[in-house]
Amino acid sequence: MRTLEGRKIICCVGSGGVGKTTTAAALALAAAMEGKRALVLTIDPARRLANSLGLKELGNEETRIDPRHFDDAHLTPRGEMWAMMLNLKHAWDELVRRDAQTPQQSETILGNKLYQTLSTAMAGSLEYIAMEKVFELYSSGRYDVIVLDTPPTSNALDFLHAPDRVLDVLDNNAMRVVLGPMMKAGKVGFRLLAVPSGLVLRTLARFTGSDFLRDLGQFMMAFEGMYEGFKDRASKVKALLSSSRTGFVLVTSPNPLITQEALFFHRALEADGIRTAAVVVNRVQRDPRRHGGPDNVPALKEALQLAQIKDTDRLAERLCETLTEQVVLADLDRREIERLRATLAGVPLFTVPRLRKDVHDLAGLWQIDGYLGGD
Amino acid sequence: MPALLDRRLVVVTGKGGTGKSTISAAVALAAARRGKKVLVCEVVAKERVADFFGRPPSGTQIRELVPNLYSVHVRPREAMREYALMILRYETLYRLAFENAAARYFLTAAPSLAEIVMLGKVFWHAAKEMERGRLRWDMVVLDAPATGHGLTFLTVPEVFLGLVSDGPLARDMRTMQSLLADPAKCSVCIVTLPEEMPANEAIDLDRALRQHQFPVGPLFLNAAFTSRFSPVEVASVTRGGPLLTAAGEAADTHESRAALSQHYEGVLREKVARDLVKVPFLFERSFGAQAIDKVAHAIEGVL
After folding, report:
1. CB contact B1 to A (< 8 Å)
2. pTM metric for this prediction
3. Residue range(s) defining the domain that contains residue A102
């Protein structure tokens, strides 16, 4: 894609199940073929990249795609393709260890009951850690381009604003306001009171129980002093994502519900001053009418006769039904793509037809790359 | 084991884009037709079910879509308010505790609190809401968030109880947990597609649901293609000259999708010990009540 030339980071965004991972991997492959050192970063739970690259397992570390896989696909890359699967829990632990000011601090946090849940279940946690990782990899300078397969967020805004939400939680000043009445300043920092006091806290405690509030207070105290580092990086990540070094690729299918989501995301990006670099529409139905030929039962019967094919078991009828169904699908897809094109005026749009087989190796990804060029 | 339609709570889970809303609507429609009063709770970002029946979105107000079939969109903020009010009883107290900057901070920080209150609301409809001396709903269908999230959603009581043991929320989560574990009252279904990723995720989801001992409901294989042509037919039509190019390509496309369907049906039957229900791919110019009706007929066998 010409529109992605010179970009250091490519974010593939879109709803779950639209081929986002495959598209991300195909873009990384294209970059590697052109001579770049390209890394595709994907998210753990679905083990998607492992599937689409024909790899058994990807650890939470950068792994170079074995040149044998390229040989198998009869491809000669001028660069290198790397892949990494992000493990949420692992990545948070790493971050805490790296950022803690003392080993005791990291131990206190890692051992906190609430941290275990918070790091994996907090809203925006996955998005936040993905961005941290992208930033770390980008800063390392090891790659010419990093392709990020974003988490399948239910809401587009979740992704862009995840860092803010996580920062809100880790903001110690806010914590002091909320849990202040439960803490007493002493010589060695804060100390927690056993019983929540203050009307607000007492009311919240009626709702959640007071243990929980105490655990939360302890957790927040453990994070003391780390917030600034988080905040500093988050603002750098934001600046990087909104700069021309980053390209956002909207991945969608022609399903109207999914394109609605894609358009929603597009507008969310615009609201943040970010221009969508490209749209990829996967799994588009090919229109059988482009070949011409008969499309009704009598004409099909005649054509079969001419070709000396026996019209047994209502073959002409079955063919006609199949043609009609695929025409319906092709029409629906075309209408949706036109609508997308009109709304996203000026954004390069690529369509990838529905392939005969699932893509799970480099040859398949390369086939997809065939549809992603030429803008 | 009671039939699916005799359960109080039917949970529909699966990967995003597999058709969970469609299956939820179809199960609810089938139950409503048998005279049951059914509520579909949509706990997803975007409400869909009302639109299937050509009705305006229900939002957070319960609305009747067709006779006996109601829907409601469960959203975190409103669920939080309703739920908190149920416990705190007084609006002023609620405002004091929940509508200030400090509390908002707390609500973002508390892990899964949004999920907890949403699940709490669904639970209330399924097990507590009364009307004229009896439970208001014969059946509640929960259209759960996408997998990954879906399992997290159902295990929320477990996670929460690991952290908190006292308070009204903990009490409710305990009762919710026992409802979710009771095969006489609850059934957790999975929806998937005949494609590699969704099929793999359905297998993972099935395993995880079993580990947590959720009552095993059917596996819906949505958008399945059935073979229509023999290989000989495809080959001869494809080679039948320019007049038959379109027909040959169409037949070949159909058969490749049917082969995928058959392959993943085989994989799923082997790896997932649940009743497998094939729901045919629907070629509809617009997806509405008619389509839901077709799906309701297709799943008749496991109801």
Report:
1. no
2. 0.84
3. 2-159+226-286+347-369
